[in-house]
């Protein structure tokens, strides 16, 4: 522990400082067996206020913690106008929190983000969210020995304690589930079939189909409609703008597997969809966070041997909830994954209090294996969150 002596927190004001901000985790986590270095170009793009559409509806400040000339930590302070408008709140967020395992450094970084939020009239600080629930979020509090799946954060066991020592309390837990290819037995297929038949007996025409890459633009429009409708009442959800959906689609299109993206249509209208990706972290862990010719060749070689995937989104529009469409999507995805040779999948995250979705996932034999936590601290002296 270095204590507060010689410790200062400064705003990122130059390209050189931004490079230090980007590079810090690669130094801090070098040698950590489970940490997967994300491609640097993706991180730079996400942080770029001129290139990533998140910044069109948010204000962000980046900070570095320094001891002398040595960088020992980083944090982003965030005001997401879209979130506050959607939820009628005045909260700020912190994200990209990485630092040496030092209570004084964590406290100084969070204190600086709190002061930034207070100066903007915000009443609480919540996180980690990098940048929102539409991107990576939560501190891992359970499942430290499980390799992180694609687009999920990983941290050491001391990380949550260091956040809590700065006065932060649990706001929500995010649950991830694990399912094996042999989970989907004939009984579950019959149950999913009966759920579908029940809808059809009510005079509804139910279609389950994979993504059509030849009509990608139209499919994207369907995704946005279902996504924003299905999640609109969820805690912490922020509707994705058209620009954000298009940006995400450009990033995912080269790596998406159409059979792992499933739509349910009722009478020709999109009622539900799920997005599952191969767990590209199984290849990215060997690429050193770079995308040069050698790393790309490594990725193309290793992606053929990926046997795990992650269902990262599953949503049902309100009219068709609690009718079994969740289980139908999961069973169809497992069946497609089995055909493609995947042996297991992570499903999540799911809000801990989303009982219908968690029940649906448990009903197909999935096992709870990871928990991420979003913390909150009141910035008002008259109450705590």
Describe the structure.
Helix content is 35%, strand content 28%. α6 packs across α11 (325-340). Strands 1, 2, 3, 4, 5, 8, 9, 10, 11, 12, 13, 14 and 15 form a 13-stranded mixed sheet that branches. A two-stranded antiparallel sheet has the order 6-7. The protein folds into two domains: 7-175 and 374-378, Aminopeptidase; 178-370, Gcn5-related N-acetyltransferase (GNAT) (Aminopeptidase, 3-Layer(aba) Sandwich), CATH 3.40.630.30. The model has no long low-confidence stretch (mean pLDDT 90). The protein is α+β, with helices and mostly antiparallel strands and 385 residues long.
Write a compact overview of the structure shown.
This protein has 385 residues and is α+β, with helices and mostly antiparallel strands. The chain has twelve helices and 15 strands.
């Amino acid at each position: 522990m270095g204590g507060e002596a010689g410790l200062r927190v400064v705003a990122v004001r130059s390209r050189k400082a931004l490079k230090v901000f980007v590079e810090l985790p690669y130094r801090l986590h070098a040698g950590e067996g489970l940490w997967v270095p994300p491609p640097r170009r993706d991180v730079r793009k996400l942080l770029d206020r001129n290139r990533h559409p998140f910044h069109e509806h948010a204000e962000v400040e980046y900070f570095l913690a320094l001891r002398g000339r040595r960088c020992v930590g980083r944090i982003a302070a965030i005001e997401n106008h879209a979130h506050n408008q959607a939820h009628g709140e005045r909260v700020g967020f912190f994200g990209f929190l990485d630092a040496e395992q030092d209570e004084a450094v964590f406290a100084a970084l969070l204190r600086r983000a709190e002061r930034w939020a207070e100066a903007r009239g915000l009443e609480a600080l919540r996180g980690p969210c990098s940048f929102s629930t539409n991107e990576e979020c939560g501190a891992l509090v359970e499942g430290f020995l499980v390799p992180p799946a694609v687009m999920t954060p990983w941290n050491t066991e001391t990380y949550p304690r260091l956040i809590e020592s700065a006065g932060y309390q649990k706001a929500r837990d995010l649950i991830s589930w694990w399912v094996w290819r042999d989970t989907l037995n004939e009984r579950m297929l019959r149950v999913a079939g009966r759920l579908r038949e029940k809808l059809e007996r009510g005079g509804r025409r139910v279609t389950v189909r994979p993504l059509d890459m030849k009509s990608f633009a139209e499919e994207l429009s369907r995704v946005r409609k279902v996504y924003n409708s299905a999640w609109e009442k969820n805690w912490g959800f922020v509707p994705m703008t058209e620009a954000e959906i298009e940006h995400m689609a450009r990033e995912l299109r080269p790596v998406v597997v159409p059979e792992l993206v499933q739509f349910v249509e009722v009478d020709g209208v999109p009622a539900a969809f799920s997005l599952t990706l191969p767990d590209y972290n199984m290849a990215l862990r060997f690429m050193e966070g770079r995308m040069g010719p050698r790393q790309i060749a490594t990725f193309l070689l290793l992606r053929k041997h990926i046997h795990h995937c992650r269902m990262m989104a599953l949503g049902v529009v309100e009219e068709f909830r609690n009718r079994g469409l969740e289980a139908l999507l999961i069973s169809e995805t497992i069946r497609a994954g089995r055909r493609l040779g995947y042996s297991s999948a992570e499903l999540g995250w799911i809000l801990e209090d989303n009982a219908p979705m968690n029940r649906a996932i448990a009903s197909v034999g999935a096992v709870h294996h990871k928990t991420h936590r979003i913390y909150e601290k009141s910035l008002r002296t008259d109450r705590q969150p």
